[in-house]
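tool_call predict_complex ligand=phosphoenolpyruvate
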Amino acid sequence: MKSFKQIFSEAENKIVGIAAAPGIVIAKAYLFTKEVLEVNGGPITDVEEAKNNFEEALNKSKKELNKIFALAKEKMDSTRAAIFEAQLMILDDPILIDNIKTRIEKEKKQPEYIVDDEISKYQLLMVQSHESYMNERANDIGDIKNRIIRNLQKKRWQSRITNDIIVVSSFLTPADTILFSRSNVKGFITDHGGLTSHAAIVSRSLNIPAVVGTHNATKKIKENDTIIVDGFHGYILVSPNEEQIQFFRNKIEHLVELQKGLEGLKDKPAETTDGKKISLYANVDVTGEIDVVITNGAQGIGLYRTEQILEELGEFPGEEEQTRIYTNLSSRIYPSPLTIRAFDIGGDKFKFLDYSEPNPFLGLRGIRLLLENEKLFKIQIRSILKASKNKNIYFMLPMVSTITEIRKSLKLIDLCKEELKTEKISFDKNLKIGIMIEVPSAAVMAYELAKEVDFVSIGTNDLIQYLMAVDRGNDLVSDLYQEFHPSVVRTVSHVISETIRAGKTISICGEMAADTLAIPLLVGLGLPILSLAPMTIPYAKRIIRNISFQKTKELASECLACSTEKEITDKLEKFFVDNSITRTRNII
Ligand code: PEP
Ligand code: MG
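tool_result ok
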């Protein structure tokens, strides 16, 4: 049988991208494009007939949306389903409807043209609006517009998403990714985006294989083409031949076997051969993931990205709703710890600002934005405190770059505690507060910063981006996004030793911890807690159970002396070979 290398070097039907979420899948392609409808701007002769057609299309759109709304209420909780209710309200907006009718009468143009023009004006206003959330809503309005136009053109509305397909798209937002996952989507392929773009992270959390940053997959793949997605290597095969299909079917079978072996590890500790215990926690992006966390044997949640709630809801939930979400999670994972991270908004995540920042990744993001919006921050702090009665919640601040930000946040937390005391609402008085180290200035000052809080978690996704000055979501510069660059390894090492020197708990929750190649290094650098995507936990555990702590320490000090990324990766690869440890990427 041919090797993986042979299969790929011979393949003329391959597309290469970035391996964003592991797994192999063979299925039909579904090309996802936001549909652009041709609009006829010609004249009409019968105004009454045109107005009737518009009314009819409007009613049909309402019927369709009502059905979708009912379905949404079945599948999601009511706050999430409310987005469709908002769309329905737009279809009932008397001003919009009157404007369209009046223009049909006056301009005597096709209603589809007037609908397009009138609703596009709304959309434009929203894009330019200085009110929060409006930009996000512009896409919803676009969907409504297309729905009415489609019904005016008497085109049948077809929900083209069928089960078991691979979504191929130019770009996917995290919200798209979550929505698609509800239709049993088998895989994701995108032209744009990098390894740590949030859509990639969401695919990983949902255990859906994904290849991103292919540049041109949407041009090379046609609807219904059979596709093989190899999310381990970032390869795609379009309309594969029999030999290729057979090769990957064997791989899938092998993978199933491999995973069987992992199941037995669930209740065993992540302990090195010489007795060093490592805690494996899970990163959670979507609430539904909690089952995956539990089945994969995580010892707790090391990172709960609360901004994901905003992506799903499209708005900020109030104190009651947030308290409910956090309480549920805390109870489900109890007595294990739940680390809730304050909203990390900004960058490529949830659009909040009413203006566009020239450099959003260097702008008002994470803790900076929260401190600028104290009201919003206080609602989250109060909700977390109210949900902390089980005493298993840890609260973490994202994107910290100065000690002042920590002090201001702690002051606000104290203020919320005082308020709750006055209101006679109980909470965990010893709620542990931590920070993420994701910014070079914070890494340099790790000792001083750690002194201020109870724990520190290293966010390598951002730390690498800021250290290497390379946008984490930009596939054009993904070559420079080097998690094993000596500067990254040395910085991670510095943060670990400085936090330990400050007497505080240290962990890592960036994607680096989920890279099987990195695990011996991270253990050797002295990290006692690794927080990673839930499905990668068993793989990490198997590696840890096969390595000696003593040897990983030697490996780490050798890596700290290297001057290039290649030298470090060579050493890490060699470590696996020398110690006969199988690594997922070697096997697949
Ligand atoms: C990180 O930056 O490493 C991290 C875990 O945070 P996020 O990926 O959510 O930015
Ligand atoms: Mg981050």
